[in-house]
Each structure stands twice: as structure tokens, then as C-alpha cells.
Amino acid sequence: MLRVGLTGGIGSGKSTVARRLADRGAVIIDADALAREVVAPGTPGLQQIRDRFGDTVIGADGALDRREMATIVFGDERARADLEKITHPLVASRCADLLDAAGPESIVVYDVPLLVENKLGADYHLVVVVDAHAEERLERLVQRRGMSEADVRARMAHQASDAQRAAAADVLIVNDGIEDELRAAVDELWDDRLLPFDENLRAQRRSEWRRLGVAVPYDEEWPRQAERLIGRLSRALGQRAPEIEHVGSTAVPGMPGKDVIDLQIGVSELTDADDPEFVAVLGQLGFPRLEDVRMDHPTGELLDPELWVKRYHVSCDPGRVVHIHVREADSAGWQSALLFRDWLRACPDAAVEYVAVKQRLADSTPDSRSYATAKEPWFEEVWPRITAWAQKSGWRA
């Protein structure tokens, strides 16, 4: 089941996006609607709130007085924690009921206004952020909803900034145009990314392979994308993955490279990576294992193949190519990946040289496997320079 988090600032058009996704077949779970539902008049949730906070939070109509409730919990961490202790399990239970009803083949979109503020991005396969310029949002809310400008600006000030939402976004939909343009953007997202991602996820297969350029210009989004992926892996794997690092060309600031996010998961023993639950968790996240890749190429003086074994996972997401290398922490392969990355970061001339080598070999090799093999002599050639730098700099993994 593909899980998508949807969020956006007030007046961004998030609700329009949610409706369009529902039209295309998504199951929408509205966090605000569930939060209201579980404390509606006559529910156990409302009774628990009355028992904890008293009759002052119940309005004349028997419903929760949200303004009074907000006044009580604002600035009072204990009161807020008590409220969340009541509502969060109820919302989670109701959400589970909706998921059961949706079925495993559904694409589920969670409409969560405070997704960024509450740091919930790691709970989803993808986060979609709907954004619009602040003045555009202000005009919409004043003209269409009749809100006062002061009220709108106050609400905006208490939400995440545009930059914070952009940093959390796997997909950023900018809604500064007409509604037809917004619907077209949602349709493109659905057809080109969400549907194939869901199909690949259920089949546990990698996204369609395509040969990528080896020296595309550096993208400032690469480290942010890696950070979001590491957050998801850390949340799901916990102590089974004590070390996760961004490695490879996209981990070297400013250096052109192949548009692939390489991540390295360090495990205490490689047998941990073969545990069926470990493999299943990565598969559920959208990273099935590729069984025919089991080794790194031995480099330097440590030529024992047993020091270079690994496990390899790839991405189901057609919009983001990801390679996950699972190695024993402190193994030769683990240290080599970190050392090479850090050498390139510290030595700009070496990074320029590496890009030139990659470009030359890409132009003369027919496929990615041949290209990888052709790079091996260069690695052997520069390895003494790398180890000399490590000794001189006092480098440690």
C-alpha cells in the first residue's frame, strides 16, 4: 500500500489537490476530519476530554469548544500531552479502520495540515507539498473565505515557512495559476509517479531501468533528498540500522554526478541484513532487494573477498533512483565508501579528475555494468593517494 503525505500552508490549494486525487482513485484520510470525528458529541473521546478538563471545554451545543480547548493547552505542555494521550490513539484506531476498508491495493493519501510542523514526513513513502506565494494565499483567503488579513497573517505565522515545507517535499506542487493547471499537475503526478510507484511496490520490483548521465550538474536537492530517505529508513529499521550514510557522487557538494542517491546502511553483522524481517521492512518502504549483487570490488591491499560482501536494495519509485548498500559497519567496503566520499569532498582537484574519468568511460562503454568494470583500474591507481590523504589528515570512519 503506497502511503502519501499531503500538506500545504493555509490557502495553498491543498484541499483541491486532495479532491483531485480522490477523483483519480486515491483513498483520502483527512487528519483534521478524523480529529473532529473522534471527539464529536456522544463519543467516548469527548467524554474523556470532559473528565480531564471539565465542563468549561464543552459548548452549549454539547460539542467541544475548540477555542477554549486551545486556550487551555496553549503553553501548557502537560495539558497538551494529556489531550494528545486521549485523541491520538482514537485517531490512530479510526485511521486503521479506514485502511482496512481501503484494502492493500489502494493508494492512500493522508491530508495532514501540520505534517511538517510535527515532523511526520518519515511516516510516508512520499510527501507532497502544495505551495503558493504568500500574497496569493492571502488574497484567496480574504476574498473567497472572508477572513480578515490580520487573521490570515497570524495563522501563516504559526505554520511552517515556505522553506521548511520545500525541504520536506518529495514533490512540490506550485499553485500560483488557475485551477485547471493545478488539476493537470495532479494528474501528471498520479499517472507518472504514484501509479507506477504503487505497482512496483506491490510487485516488489525496481522502477524501470534507464541509463543515466554520469556527470549531470550538481543538484542542491540531492542532500535534502538523502536526508528524507535516511529519516524513513531510520524510523522503520531503528536499532537494526545503527549507521546510515549518504555516499557516492551525490554526497559530494558541488560535484557533477549520476542522478542517483546512494545510501549505505551499516549493520553489526551481515546476517542482520538477511533477516527476513529486515528485508521485508525495506521492501515495504519501497526498496526491494536485488539478489544478484552481493559484492563490492576489492580495492587496495585488502583483497580478501569476504571483506567486501554486501547486500543491495533498489527503489520502486520512478521519480527517484536510489541504491542502498548494506554492509557490515567498519568492514572494508563500508570504510572504502566513506573514505572515497570524504577524499572527494576534501580535494576539489580529485573530484574534477573523477568527473573527467567518468565522462570518458561513459562515452566508451555500452552499458552500466561495463562502465562500472572500466572504472576499477582508476580506483586502483588513485588508492595510494587516497590512503596517503587519510593518514595525513587523521581521517577516521
Overall mean confidence score, pLDDT? 92
Bulk shape: elongated
Got a strand count? 9
Q: Could you state the order of secondary-structure elements as H and E?
A: EHEHHHHEEHHHEHHEEHHEEHHH
Computed over alpha carbons, the radius of gyration is 25 Å
In order across it, which strands form the biggest sheet?
2-3-1-4-5
In DSSP terms, counting alpha (H) and pi (I) runs of 4 or more, how many helices?
A: 15
The major pleated sheet works out as: 5 strands, parallel
- Structure class: alpha/beta
Low-confidence runs: none
Q: What distance lies between the first and last C-alpha atoms, to the nearest angstrom? A: 37 Å
User: Fraction of residues in helices?
Assistant: 40-55%
Strand content: 5-15%
Q: What can you see in these coordinates?
A:
This protein has 15 helices and 9 strands. The chain has 397 residues and is α/β, with parallel strands linked by helices. The chain has a 5-stranded parallel sheet, sandwiched between helices. A 4-stranded mixed sheet has the order 6-7-9-8, sandwiched between helices. The protein is elongated and about 80 Å long.
